[in-house]
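User: Can you help me understand a structure? I only have the sequence.
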Amino acid sequence: MIRVMLVDDQELVRTGFRMVLGAQPDIEVVGEAADGASAVEMLRTLEADVVLMDVRMPRMDGVEAARLICASPSSPKVLMLTTFDLDEYAFEAIKAGVSGFLLKDVPPPELISAIRSVNAGDAVIAPSTTRRLLDRVAVHLPVGEALRRQDDTLTAREREVLYHVALGLSNAEIAQQLRLAEATVKTHLGRILAKLSLRDRAQAVVYAYESGLVTPDRTQG
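Assistant: Let's start by predicting it. Here is the structure, written out as tokens:
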């Protein structure tokens, strides 16, 4: 059973999600909160596997709540509810550790699939979508000496794999481009995440943009 917590300041939205999820045999809504602060407080005693989190809420927004929740080693996965006109939140949300994004008007089958995927350890936002979001907020990305501190920790091959990840390619596509086995690409990606202390593929894309490895014009730095 996948335990889900709903966090949204609109009761009608929570009711809609609760009805959809409650009809699934493998999903249980175990809690609800109307703002980020309440969600963080509730999760101190409530066990959840996935948190469905709105971005804009009173008292504490979804990004800050996600940052606090994801800081715990045994934290639940966070799915951020967003709209394309809130892209300025995407960058900080990925850095905070969220496992993906869903539009607030997501069709029920996609919502259910996303929750199951995140619970299984996958990200529900395609790398290409992450890249498109980052392209739109690239002006806000910090650039500087501090962001290049860890460049030397990656091998040339790992940097090459990271570059292609940030361009939105799947492991299979990277394997074809670099003439490697797909399993080898997966191994390289795992080492990249470990060396850079990154949570998942989405955060790897953020790092690639931050470090200048990939720039908005899609050239290698």
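Now, to help you interpret it: The beta strands are 2-7, 27-33, 50-54, 77-82, 100-103. Residues 182-195 form the longest helix (14 residues). Let me know which part you'd like to focus on.
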